[in-house]
């Protein structure tokens, strides 16, 4: 992997964060093509679907090396396309679905987004009310999704919809694959706290998709949805500690530069953050060991999600205190969207804009992909066996 | 818990402020966030309502009552809207006027106080510089005698009302290398040649306030525009800082209280798993914890308000009120945001904006660290 990266990256490469926003976007586009050509876009997928067919251990090595040099990940909705729906199709899809959708994801022709949350159903996902009814060879979909990240950049959406209104909540749901480029699908942007509008509401009014665009069984979507959430929550065990350690090193550098490192109270908290990220590394290693033994991500992913999201809020809060009054005004390069939802890009300048935006983004970490309260409920019920 | 600080006069005034907010503020406040500043029409309306003259004697068109509780009521009601309003109005009506009333020349008083109380002129207070924040002794903006004038050179930053102010109280260095002992206050009219404003700063929160950088290039002000005594500016500021800090405490707490009330409503109406999300015991207990913290904090702040009304509030007690309320406010708003789920992260919800607005309260007007320093020093450490 190091040879590959040395061959493909410029000699003076310092991470995508060292590029300004426009150059970073342009690089990300080119880098996606490079990964695609070498089969590294979806390294775990079998080569017949355009992947690299790497073993789990090899995948981890690749992820670590990519995180270390700071190349962009999750470009063009790939978090939704490859990590979520792609992996889920590999697990549950029919051969026709795999043959059809997987190559189009890798080529960039299909860009996906996630249609789970609704105005009335977030933590309580099974309370969703978007409906789908069969009409001959097509599903007719009506309802509304919300908080759809990157929905405005997508042309496909995987939708959890109620297909049997009379069944108990969890048993009447199906996962449908719906093209967005049709009159029945309308996307409206929502502006979030960090000032970006990556979010959307998606409205379905007699929207259609072919009957065969169901993943898994009709009315069996809950199980499929949970597999997908496992991928959303589980894959990061190896890479998150690397990202967070790189970020923390930047914070140490900042504290040295601006003198905050001389302040004994801040020093205490910096040391605490170091312990936090080291513990995360060991936690990651133990999840990884289980993954390498062939166990799918299980309820212990809740421990990891809870841990990193709360760690990151603490550390970005610390960064604002290190910045002191500089933290009041947004100055410098704002993080790009190429590394979504977590740390700023590797190599990014130590500006207030970088830390302020990252701190705001970290605030959403305890909400999306299952709130902290829900993670604690999972830990209590599934790991500790406490009564429901 | 029933509060025993305010009597009927204050409650009548509270109703008047509420009515003002309903009529003159709520219909426009979203536009002000987009425009990044309060329009003059707001100041004039507040002036007509008598809200800007609480520290200004009647002879200058004000309604000075010598009772800080009216100021506190005003701050509480504005804080129920957002953090920027009490900040901008507080600087103008609560913080700047005492310097003019008690320390300025008759000329400055009669020229400016009437216009401040009508809102025809807006005031700002300029202490902070790029190189001098917590450490005011490092102020570098200089004022040098020049005939019967002083010539001011330098720059200030993070100045609330900076973009619209007509009169700025400026802390400048009159004796080099003397640290805090070489500072003097001046009233600088914004139309003085050489005075300039930088961009409106892109802040984390409070878009309704026009925080700005200010520049002074050979700005000449008459000697009669010196406020207080030469080289005693720091002492003067120390005299009035407790009031600023107490106002901050009152505001922090009222803002948090309002957002908790709104969150409680949200958590009662919002259901998941067939119940209001506030009904899950984890959240119910969290609410219990939050309102207890608010009530206990309120008891302390109310005592400080009473003490200040009697002229007995110590700087140390004001420091305690300021940092503690900032801490409680930030923690409480963070819980409130979490209780909103995904909606809490979206700017169209008030809690998202409130959370961002509140981040600064642990920093401005003396950071939490500086407050603890003051308290620690008082303990003889
Ligand atoms: C940055 C971001 C990106 C997102 N991207 C997407 C996306 O691409 N696609 C998508 O489908 N969704 C997305 N979401 C939505 C996200 O999954 C939901 O916001 C989340 O599941 C919470 O649901 P909710 O907002 O309805 O909150 P609610 O479920 O209404 O929760 C409100 C509060 O109640 C608490 N609560 C709920 N149930 C319990 C319980 N049993 N016990 C104790 N407390 C409880 C919650 O923890 C929370 O504090 C995104 C959200 C964010 C913030
Ligand atoms: C030193 C001592 C002296 C005492 N003297 C007397 C006496 O003179 N006369 C007398 O009548 N009694 C007396 N008591 C008993 C005392 O009142 C009980 O111990 C007390 O009411 C708790 O009841 P419990 O022990 O059955 O605990 P439980 O009710 O079994 O509680 C166990 C735990 O569960 C928690 N819990 C219970 N319900 C809930 C809920 N709805 N939600 C969340 N958590 C919950 C509790 O907070 C506790 O942490 C005494 C106890 C002690 C320790």
Describe this structure in words.
The complex is a heterodimer of chains A (388) and B (381). With 388 residues, chain A is of the alpha+beta class. Chain A contains 11 helices and 8 strands. Chain A has helices at 2-8, 21-37, 56-69, 78-92, 95-107, 221-234, 239-258, 264-292, 301-323, 352-364, 372-383, and strands spanning 112-115, 131-135, 138-145, 156-162, 173-179, 185-190, 199-210, 214-215. In chain A, helix 4 packs across helix 6, helix 7 (239-258) runs parallel beside helix 9 (301-323) and helix 9 (301-323) packs antiparallel against helix 10. Chain A is globular, with a radius of gyration of 21 Å. The termini of chain A are far apart. Chain B is an alpha+beta fold and 381 residues long. Chain B folds into 3 domains: 8-122, Acyl-CoA dehydrogenase/oxidase, N-terminal domain (Butyryl-Coa Dehydrogenase, subunit A, domain 1, Orthogonal Bundle), CATH 1.10.540; 124-231, Butyryl-CoA Dehydrogenase, subunit A, domain 2 (Beta Barrel), CATH 2.40.110; 234-378, Butyryl-CoA Dehydrogenase, subunit A, domain 3 (Up-down Bundle). Helices cover 50% and strands 15% of the residues of chain B. Chain B is built from 11 helices and 10 strands. In chain B, the strands form 3 sheets. Chain B has a 4-stranded mixed sheet, covered by helices on one side. Classes of the chains: A alpha+beta (388), B alpha+beta (381). The A-B interface holds A 117, 120-124, 127, 146-147, 190-193, 195, 199, 265, 320, 324-325, 327-331, 356, 360, 363-364, 366-368, 371-373, 376 and B 128, 133-134, 158, 201-204, 271-274, 277, 280, 282-283, 337-338, 341-342, 344-348, 352, 355-356, 359-360, 363-364, 367, 369. The complex binds flavin-adenine dinucleotide (2 copies). One flavin-adenine dinucleotide sits between chains A (114-117, 122-124, 147-149, 364, 367-368, 371, 373-374, 377) and B (270, 272-273, 277, 280, 282-283, 338-339, 341-343, 345).
């Amino acid at each position: 992997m190091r040879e590959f990266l040395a061959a493909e990256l410029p000699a003076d490469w310092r991470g995508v964060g060292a590029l300004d926003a426009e150059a970073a976007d342009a690089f990300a586009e080119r880098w996606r093509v490079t990964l695609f050509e070498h089969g590294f876009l979806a390294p775990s997928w079998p080569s017949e679907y355009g992947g690299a067919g790497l073993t789990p251990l090899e995948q981890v090595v690749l992820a670590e090396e990519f995180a270390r040099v700071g190349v962009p990940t999750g470009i063009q909705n790939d978090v939704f396309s490859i990590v979520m729906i792609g992996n889920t199709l590999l697990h549950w899809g029919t051969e026709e679905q795999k043959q059809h959708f997987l190559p189009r994801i890798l080529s960039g022709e299909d860009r996906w987004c996630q249609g789970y949350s609704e105005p009335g159903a977030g933590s309580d996902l099974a309370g969703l009310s978007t409906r789908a009814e069969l009409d001959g060879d097509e599903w007719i979909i009506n309802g509304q999704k919300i908080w759809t990240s990157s929905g405005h950049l997508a042309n496909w959406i995987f939708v959890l919809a109620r297909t049997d209104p009379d069944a108990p909540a969890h048993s009447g749901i199906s996962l449908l694959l719906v093209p967005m480029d049709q009159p029945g699908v309308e996307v409206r942007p929502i502006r979030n706290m960090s000032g970006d509008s990556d979010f959307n509401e998606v409205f379905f009014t007699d929207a259609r998709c072919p009957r065969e665009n169901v993943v898994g069984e009709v009315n069996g979507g809950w199980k499929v949805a949970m597999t997908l959430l496992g991928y959303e929550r589980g894959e990061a065990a190896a890479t998150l500690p690397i990202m967070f350690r790189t970020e923390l090193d930047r914070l140490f550098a900042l504290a040295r530069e601006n003198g905050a490192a001389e302040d004994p109270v801040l020093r205490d908290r910096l040391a605490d953050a170091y312990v936090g990220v080291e513990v995360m590394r060991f936690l990651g290693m133990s999840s990884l060991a289980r993954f390498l033994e062939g166990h799918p991500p299980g309820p212990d992913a809740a421990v990891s999600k809870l841990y990193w999201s709360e760690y990151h809020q603490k550390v970005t809060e610390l960064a604002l205190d290190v910045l002191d009054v500089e933290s009041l005004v947004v100055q410098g390069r704002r993080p790009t969207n190429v590394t979504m939802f977590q740390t700023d890009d590797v190599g990014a300048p130590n500006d207030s804009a970088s830390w302020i935006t990252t701190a705001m983004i970290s605030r959403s970490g305890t909400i999306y992909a299952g709130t902290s309260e829900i993670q604690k409920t999972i830990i209590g019920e599934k790991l500790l066996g406490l009564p429901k | 818990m029933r509060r025993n600080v305010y009597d009927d006069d204050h409650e009548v005034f509270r109703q008047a402020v509420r009515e003002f907010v309903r009529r003159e503020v709520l219909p426009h406040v979203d536009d002000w966030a987009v425009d990044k500043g309060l329009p003059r029409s707001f100041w004039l309306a507040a002036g007509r309502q008598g809200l800007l003259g609480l520290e200004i004697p009647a002879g200058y068109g004000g309604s000075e009552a010598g009772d800080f509780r009216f100021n506190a009521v005003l701050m509480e009601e504005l804080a129920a809207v957002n953090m920027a309003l009490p900040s901008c109005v507080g600087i103008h009506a609560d913080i700047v006027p005492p310097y003019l009333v008690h320390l300025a020349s008759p000329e400055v008083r009669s020229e400016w106080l009437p216009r401040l109380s009508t809102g025809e002129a807006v005031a700002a207070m300029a202490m902070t510089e790029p190189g001098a924040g917590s450490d005011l002794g490092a102020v570098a903006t200089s004022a040098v005698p020049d005939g019967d004038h002083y010539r001011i050179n330098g720059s200030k930053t993070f100045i609330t009302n900076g973009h619209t102010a007509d009169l700025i109280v400026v802390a400048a260095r009159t004796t080099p290398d003397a640290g805090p002992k070489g500072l003097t206050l001046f009233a600088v009219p914004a139309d003085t040649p050489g005075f300039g404003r930088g961009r409106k700063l892109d802040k984390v929160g409070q878009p309704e306030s026009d925080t700005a950088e200010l520049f002074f290039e050979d700005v000449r002000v008459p000697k009669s525009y010196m406020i207080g005594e030469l080289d005693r500016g720091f002492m003067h500021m120390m005299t009035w800082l407790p009031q600023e800090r107490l106002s901050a405490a009152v505001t922090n707490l009222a803002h948090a209280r309002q957002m908790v009330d709104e969150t409680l409503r949200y958590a009662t109406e919002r259901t998941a798993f067939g119940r209001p999300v506030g009904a899950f015991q984890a959240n119910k207990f969290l609410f219990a914890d939050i309102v207890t913290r608010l009530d206990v904090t309120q008891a302390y702040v109310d005592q400080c308000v009473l003490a200040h009304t009697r002229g007995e509030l110590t700087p140390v007690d004001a420091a305690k009120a300021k940092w503690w309320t900032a801490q409680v406010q930030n923690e409480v708003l963070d819980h409130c945001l979490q209780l909103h789920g995904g909606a809490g992260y979206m700017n169209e919800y008030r809690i998202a904006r409130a959370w961002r607005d509140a981040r600064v309260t642990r920093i401005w007007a003396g950071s939490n660290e500086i407050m603890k320093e003051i308290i620690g020093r008082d303990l003889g450490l």
